[in-house]
Specification:
By secondary structure, the protein is an alpha/beta fold. The chain has a single domain, classed as Nucleotidyltransferase, domain 5 (2-Layer Sandwich). It has 6 helices and 7 strands, in the order E-E-H-E-H-E-E-E-E-H-H-H-H. The protein has a 5-stranded mixed β-sheet with strand order 3-2-1-4-7. A two-stranded antiparallel ribbon has the order 5-6. Helix 1 packs across helix 4. The relative contact order is 0.22. One of its GO terms (biological process) is DNA replication, removal of RNA primer. InterPro entries: RNase_HII, RNase_HII/HIII, RNase_HII/HIII_dom, RNaseH-like_sf, RNaseH_sf. Belongs to the RNase HII family. One of its GO terms (cellular component) is cytoplasm. This is Ribonuclease.
């Protein structure tokens, strides 16, 4: 098994005055169908405890992710998963859809009475913070959303327990969603491929055409 993620990196924010840290990760970004999903797992930096067996969701078997999901939810101070649909991905682009999904999860965290002091986001690009755009009156306005400081870290899901935990939550919930969509459109094999571009999935698109849950703005037939 891979090296277990720790809370060592998260501890760096404690001397800076942070208490609640939100680990954030996404799943479904590269799929051809279904939503993109963003998980958040909040840890209390003043009362941190490790959680055994948690890894980046891609390194875990489905049965292990499903076993760990309720444990992660119990371990977290607060947790949530937000989704953005294939239609939203087509309309907003993948970055806009990630922001929408992430902020849906963010507001669920706030609704639980927890306001994170800092966000630890997997990757090198901050897609979570509000998009700042000029208004019709040339004033700079920000879309409502996550207003906490966001710290990005490449491969955070491999080394940071809060982010790995968030990835498990997002993966389990998205997989369950794709299982439900498979019942509606079984020809695409979403119970197995979860909307990703396998050869059989692409062949089904080629012969049957896209479903309402496909990202039609994408090139669905070419790898």
């Amino acid at each position: 098994m891979s090296v277990a993620p720790t809370l060592d990196y998260e501890k760096r924010f404690l001397p800076r005055g942070a208490r609640f840290l939100a680990g954030v990760d996404e799943v479904g970004r590269g799929a051809l169908a279904g939503p993109v999903s963003v998980g958040i797992a909040v840890v209390d930096l003043q009362n941190m405890q490790l959680l055994a067996d948690v890894r980046d969701s891609k390194l875990l078997k489905a049965a292990d992710r499903e076993r760990l999901d309720p444990l992660v939810r119990a371990w977290s101070v607060a947790s949530a998963v937000g989704h953005a649909s294939a239609r939203e991905i087509d309309e907003l682009g993948i970055m806009g859809a990630l922001r929408a999904a992430g902020n849906r999860a963010w507001f669920e965290i706030l609704g639980a009475g927890i306001t994170p002091d800092v966000v630890l986001l997997d990757g090198s690009h901050n897609w979570l913070s509000p998009a700042v755009q000029p208004s019709l009156f040339d004033e700079v306005i920000a879309d409502p959303g996550c207003d906490a400081p966001v710290h990005t870290l490449v491969k955070a899901d491999m080394q940071c327990l809060s982010v790995a935990a968030a990835s498990v939550l997002a993966k389990v919930e998205r997989d369950q969603h794709m299982q439900q969509l498979h019942l509606e459109y079984p020809d695409f094999g979403w119970d197995v491929n979860k909307g990703y571009g396998t050869a059989l999935h692409r062949e089904a698109i080629r012969t049957r055409g896209p479903s309402p849950y496909h990202r039609v703005s994408w090139n669905l037939l070419t790898e």
